[in-house]
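Why do we bother with holo predictions? Because pocket geometry can differ from the apo form. Keep that in mind while you read this record for PRP.
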Amino acid sequence: MRYLTIALTKGRLAGQTMALLEEIGVFCEEMKDPSSRKLIFTNEELKLKFFLAKGPDVPTYVEYGAADIGIVGKDILMEEERKVYEVLDLGFGKCRMCVCGREESREKLLHQEQIRVATKYPNIAKDYFYNEKNQTVELIKLNGSIELAPIVGLAEVIVDIVETGSTLRDNGLVVLEEICPLSARVAVNPVSMRMENDRIMWLLEQIGSRLQKENA
Ligand code: PRP
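The structure, written out:
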């Protein structure tokens, strides 16, 4: 039997995913060693392979079939627009994609003045402002600490993830508009979905019914 390969988003999402998999009897002990720099792990009994990748790369591995399944945030699936099937909402990693800035910038947003928008998510921001709001903006791509942009005057507003809201609060910023809710999703390669349908469906059903029990 060939290995079914699962790409995990490095970091907290991977930990939460493995905890959920353990609840359905899928274990991978070697992934738990914090001193190890290993990137790929196996479960020989179930013929599963797991690897850890940077979030934005997970849909790429899945689209090309290097991974059959990927666990990744909805933000990344929206931004990357890869040809993968999004099949399940895992319900954890919940947060919101928002337009944020100083309270004073609310007026500018409302009156559709040409403003600068800094973001790690240019595709999501473009779609929101151009297609949903019909508003022309100047997009500036950044790679992290996006909250800096309105503080140092690089942009009026940002499009970014808000989880607890503490980064905004600590920097004198507020949510001005909400774009959409986000959470961790399961993405599947379309060819794998056909070729490995039984095993993938088994896994999805196990996870699905576990999540249902937890939410009951
Ligand atoms: C994310 C996001 C916000 C923050 C939101 O950044 O970009 O900055 O978390 O979380 P909060 O609402 O709970 O404060 P992340 O820590 O992933 O790092 P980054 O700034 O490098 O994107």
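The chain has two domains: 4-93+183-215, 95-181.
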